[in-house]
Design goal:
Helices cover 35% and strands 23% of the residues. With 164 residues, it is α+β, with helices and mostly antiparallel strands. Strands 1, 2, 3, 4, 5, 6, 7 and 8 form an eight-stranded antiparallel sheet that branches. Helix 3 packs antiparallel against helix 4.
Length: 164
Amino acid sequence: MIAKAKAKSNSPRKPAAKAKAKAKLAPKAGDQVVLLSGGNPQIPKGYGNEPVQAYIAAMPGWKNALGKRIDALVTKAVPKVHKAVKWNSPFYGMEHDLWFLSFHCFDKYVKLTFFRGSSLKPAPPGLSKYPAVRYFDIREDDELDEAQLTSWIKQAAALPGEKM
């Protein structure tokens, strides 16, 4: 009896369940997106451009234009970039599940996370409890230095990605 129960739990239905879960990657047009604390959109985990664009579309106010700008800079600087939404944040990487950059909405700023930011020249100013990670916060009235941000993006993309 125990062997049969064990065999059932390893049945081939698991991949079908995973495929069903992956089918709901991004909200459809007209779907209501829940905004979490800080106005961070709650977007289901998903891979590719579609969930990232759904996240950006749901970013409130001035953060929406900034999200579009960041995404455009990454896409232009790294044409073969892989995209995903994980933990309610867009992720960018050079290989599947190996990431170099992410961003997240907070009340008064958008936080960019460079997973190997301590290796960038100059390193982004925000420190982390993880020595390799550096943050860059962008507030509504900040003047974005696109040349510096593009340099960081290109440098980060050239480094080994972080598994998340």
